[in-house]
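pasting GNAT family N-acetyltransferase for the record, 266 residues
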Amino acid sequence: MTQDPTAALLALFDDEMRRHARPDAPGVRVERTPDLVRQVGTPDDWNGVVWTAPDLDAERADAAIAAQVDYYTALGHEEFEWKLYSHDRPADLGERLRRAGFEPEPPETLFVAPVTGLPAAAELPAGVDLHTVSDAAGVELMIRAHEQAFGTDSSWLRQRTLTRLAEAPDTLVAVVVLADGEPVSAARMELCPGTGFAGLWGGGTAAPWRGRGIYRALIAHRARIAAERGYRYLQVDATDQSAPILRRLGFTALSTTTPYAYRTTP
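structre below
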């Protein structure tokens, strides 16, 4: 029986990006147990569970949840995350995480598209320019753009981006869009050597500049770079706001992902 293409693509994503996850930043490590894969770093890094065994049952799930709470709190981390996908098992894993003290963040949709089917160019509005972020000044512009777009403190991103640009520049593409010299949009692409996937992150535009094609241009710019570097797919965890644009560009929704955060302090 021929496997459904969407199911096959999801299986490939699960295998390459979750079960065989690579560290997403310098200085972090990926650890594997029979039932899950987790990333571990300093408190300033992203820490959490990225994959769970597809045959995970209720008893093993509860044991794994308790073990992760003990593990990360013993390291002194005040927060870590369990990245749950809607196709993960057992089916009530989210509820089990809630009962253990995890709090769900807003869900996002996992979209994937072949790089070859995406536009490699898109026009920006007049007076708007796209710049590659390569130094501390560029990172500051990116942070300002993110805070305008999302209305939240993005300072956590500063050191992560600076470290990656300094120690692993080939794994990150960061861009900022300027209008009359002021940052109005920014985005990143994280490249995963040894896989066919590049991840799109942080694409956000300040409200007065939305609906003018900037988001589409940012995707086209990163798609072109991904193709040049030999990646086959782009992956996005998308909000409801960006999902319609991604569908029009040819992205396919594969699953829903919900970050469950465990915090030792309120």
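The chain is about 35% helix and 30% strand.
Residues 139 and 158 are 7 Å apart (CA to CA).
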